[in-house]
Design brief:
The chain is of the alpha/beta class. The chain contains 9 helices and 32 strands. The strands form 7 sheets. It has a 7-stranded mixed sheet with strand order 5-4-1-6-11-8-12, with helices on both faces. The protein has a 7-stranded parallel sheet with strand order 14-17-20-23-26-29-31. It has a 7-stranded parallel sheet with strand order 15-18-21-24-27-30-32, with no helix packed on it. The longest helix is centred in the middle third of the chain and has 12 residues, at 223-234. It starts with a strand and ends with a strand.
């Protein structure tokens, strides 16, 4: 099998972060989201992966390279505009040829990975296997209507969902999907919808099988979902201390201190991760916090947040439920509010009275 990872979207729901960065490279537990998909492909024994790229293509290429760091061979496929998931399949035809493949949305994270799912698809050999998950807000997703174990209908972001079963951002297809994506028309929003292509397979009598996943799945396109994914993954990370912790500091729980990081006269309560060459001084880092590389946190409190590289947080009484972009500076003047909830774009500077 081959793999197809979609990394061409604009990431409008994570703006302003994604005005200057690819949403698939925002780190979750100090690892770019895209890397979870690449690792899942490699773990499942998939060697050749195509990545659909758009305006942020250079950044994606720079991060993933030729794929050798993941044990993969990566081919980059340029998409002129985000014209839909089925359009991505359409333009990837030369790469995919007649081979079966896994399509994986680059901003999704699937706890259980895809090893068993790929093995099931290869052994049962349907035309398509789609993954479903029960969700609280199905109107945000493609939704499946089932009759027993049979898929009756798929609807893209319906205002009145027929069920609470959302399509997870991982799909498996054989070569019949190429006929389907050529047969459908753009939706009212101007995109070739993968739900329409799968519906075409169903209506044409092809074998499309649903699989209800048992573990968690996160589409990290919104701030709250990204923070939740960060929380879930931090709970599984193996604690490790590669940096330094002085004898005045208290590190409790599942905490990772990466190479070159310094913890000085501070309290770190896990699960949390402090990135390479970052420094935490006279501060409190609470649970479910990821601080990326080359950051500095001084005389401050941070909890349940994702802090990107080269941020500076100084004399802030409390930051929580927040996402800070690259090179953000947050510093406090004498008057201190009780808590801050922030979403700041790259190169921002916030000076509080």
């Amino acid at each position: 099998m081959k793999g197809l990872i979609l990394s061409g979207g604009a990431g409008t729901r994570l703006r302003p972060i994604t005005h200057t960065s690819a949403k698939q490279l925002v780190p979750v537990a100090n690892k770019p989201i895209l890397f979870y998909g690449l690792e899942a492909m490699a773990e499942a024994g998939i060697g050749e992966v195509g990545i659909i790229i758009g305006e942020t293509g250079d950044e994606i290429r720079g991060a993933a390279g030729d794929g050798s760091d993941f044990g993969l061979r990566i081919t980059y496929i340029e998409q002129e505009a985000p014209l839909g998931l089925a359009h991505a399949v359409l333009i990837a035809r030369d790469f995919l040829a007649a081979d079966p493949f896994v399509m994986y949305l680059g901003d999704n994270i699937l706890k259980e990975g895809i090893v068993d799912l790929v093995a099931r698809f290869e052994s049962e050999n349907p035309n398509s296997q789609i993954l479903l998950a029960k969700v609280a807000e199905p109107e945000r997703f493609g939704v499946a209507e089932l009759d027993g174990d049979r898929i009756v209908r798929l609807v893209e972001k319906p205002p009145e969902p027929p069920s609470d079963l959302a399509l997870v951002g991982v799909y498996m297809f054989d070569e019949t999907i190429h006929e389907a994506v050529r047969a459908i028309e753009p939706s009212p929003r101007g995109e070739l919808e993968i739900t329409d292509a799968i519906q075409w397979l169903i209506d044409d009598g092809r074998d499309v099988r649903p699989h209800l996943i048992s573990g968690w799945w996160k589409d990290t396109g919104r701030l709250e979902d990204l923070l939740e994914a960060n929380r879930l993954i931090l709970e599984t990370v193996t604690p490790a201390v590669e940096g330094s912790i002085d004898d005045k500091s208290d590190v409790v729980g599942r905490v990772t201190v990466q190479d070159g990081a310094e913890i000085i006269d501070s309290v770190i309560r896990g699960p949390a991760i402090i990135g390479r060459n970052s420094k935490v001084v006279r501060s409190f880092i609470g649970p479910f916090t990821s601080i990326y590389e080359d950051c500095e946190v001084i005389d401050s409190e941070v909890e349940h947040s994702v802090i990107l590289e080269s941020c500076r947080i100084r004399s802030i009484s409390r930051i929580e439920d927040s996402l800070l972009g690259k090179e953000v500076i947050v510093e406090q003047d004498p008057q201190k509010p009780a808590a801050l909830r922030l979403m700041l774009g790259d190169h921002s500077r916030l000076s509080l009275p």
